[in-house]
Amino acid sequence: MDRIVYLDNNATTRVAPEVRDAMLPFFCDRYGNPSSMHAFGGEVAKDLSAAREEVARFLNADPDEIIFTSCATESDNAAIRGTADYFGRELKVITTAVEHPAVLQPCRRLKAFGHDVVELGVDGLGNLDLDELRRRLEAARPAPTLVSVMYANNETGVLNPMDEIAAICREYGAILHTDAVQVAGKLPVDVKKVPVDMLSMSGHKFHAPKGIGLFYVRRGTKLKPFMLGGHQEQSRRAGTENVPYIVGLAKACELARLGWEEEGRRLARLRDRLQAGILASCPNVRVNGDKSRRLPNTLNVSFEYIEGEAIAYRLSDLGICISTGSACASGSLDPSHVIRAMGVPFTAVHGSVRFSLSRYTTDEDIDYVLEKLPPVVHGLREMSPFGPDRAVDTFK
Ligand code: PLP
Predict the structure, then answer these.
(1) How far does the centroid of ligand 1 lie from the alpha carbon of residue 70, in Å?
(2) How many angstroms separate the alpha carbon of residue 29 from the centre of ligand 1?
(3) 337 close to 122: Cβ distance less than 8 angstroms
(4) Protein residues whose CB sits closer than 6 Å to any atom of ligand 1
(5) Where are the alpha helices (DSSP H) in the chain?
(6) How far apart are CA 96 and CA 75, in angstroms?
(7) How far is CA 213 from the centre of its chain?
């Protein structure tokens, strides 16, 4: 294909060349085990601790609060299952209906084992009702309670008010975990200003490779280790450390930390240009999610009366990569649980697609999409049996 315009960065990102270069020496030269007694391994232990310091700086955490995992799914499972392991059956869990399956599934597993688990709903813009959170916390008293709320939604980019949520959890003595996968590298996260107890991130969402995750655990948090075995990561996550990937993750954190503000503004400008161009060229389009509280790189839109999958396939033939619903749930034609939880009307639910930008997205990429997308949408609408002036609109 002549040209690839990659706008599926909430699914995964390209590894930054700086990250790759930082990792390379750790495959064939500095390959010692950081736990070894010899100096060769000891040198690698120093590199590991430098990487831990860089990752801690990225979150304004202390280095001993950082645990390296294999991915965010592992971090999410470690937070939820590790807390349940610590407290046993009396633990109550409050989460949201729009979490990623990496949070929803372990919570539902706990429910199947008899835990009291509540999934908070969202309004039409994807926002939580914090009074509802308070009511649920009040009702859960005096049982130990874990709250797991994502920092930003992977499909719509909607940001939750984590500072307010953290303050409410503190007031009620609840433990707060946040899946911060999508915010990583896009907006600063400061665990001192936003005092969550546990936080998950994944390297491949911000230009480190796939296969490395980050798990922040505030000192003193009550948690049993999820992976049992060796004494690595202060016995909180067994398994020989994946040093090349940890070094890569640290480099990605450094790149993001040094460019947050400027990059955030650039991404928002490109995303807003894409949004305005789509709204101007295609009728019957709605933007999903609260436009005033979104990640700067994410745009979720519903093209009414046509299928998001059809749009994505046609754009794919033109070299444009986007997603419908959650990339992790792709392969299924079920409408996205996030879009459904927001109560998006039937005529728009199936036509939802996500564009997600990265530091490598350019103005030319946006121009290309704005040139190719409208004819695709018009062509599909011509063929669609649905439409504002057609019979099937009665489903509304
Ligand atoms: N949480 C969120 C919000 C995500 O978007 C994803 C991936 O899409 C994950 C968790 C899982 O990340 P990983 O595939 O690295 O385990």
Answers:
(1) 12
(2) 32
(3) no
(4) 71-73, 100, 102, 150, 154, 179, 181-182, 202, 204, 328
(5) 17-23, 25-28, 39-59, 72-87, 101-112, 130-140, 162-172, 232-235, 243-281, 308-317, 337-341, 346-349, 363-383
(6) 18
(7) 12
For 4-49, the pLDDT digits (tens) are 999 999 999 999 999 999 999 999 999 999 999 999 999 999 999 9
393 token code pair: 């609109």
- 207: phi > 0 → left, psi -120 to 50 → alpha, else beta; which? left
Residue 308 one-letter amino acid: G
How far apart are the C-alpha atoms of 338 and 229, rounded to whole Å?
A: 37
Written as six digits, the tokens of 344 are: 């998006």
Question: Catalytic residues, which ones?
Answer: 328
Task: Give the tokens for residue 360.
Answer: 């490598």
Nearest CA to ligand 1 atom 8: 11
Give the atom of ligand 1 at the shortest distance from the alpha carbon of 205.
15
**SS3 label, residue 179:** strand
Phi-psi region for residue 343, left (φ > 0), alpha (ψ -120 to 50) or beta? left
99 CA: nearest ligand 1 atom: 3
Q: Residue 6 — φ and ψ, nearest 5°?
A: -95, 105
Q: pTM for this one?
A: 0.95
Cα(157) to ligand 1 centroid in Å equals 13
Q: Is 317 exposed, middle or buried (0-12, 13-18, 19+ CB in 10 A)?
A: exposed
Sign of CA dihedral 390, 391, 392, 396: positive
Q: Which of 103, 159, 178, 202 to mutate to test the pocket of ligand 1 (most atoms within 8 A of CB)?
A: 202
55-78 CB burial, b ≥16 within 10 A, e <16: bbebbebeeebbbbbbbbbbbbbb
Q: 257 alpha carbon to ligand 1 midpoint, in Å?
A: 21
Distance 187 CA to ligand 1 centre (A): 17
The tens digit of pLDDT for each residue in 74-97 reads 999 999 999 999 999 999 999 999
> Given ligand 1 and candidates 95, 104, 328, which is best to mutate, with the most ligand atoms within 8 Å of its CB?
328
End-to-end CA distance of the chain: 40
CA–CA separation, 144 and 313 (whole Å): 47
**Residue of the CA atom closest to atom 12 of ligand 1:** 72
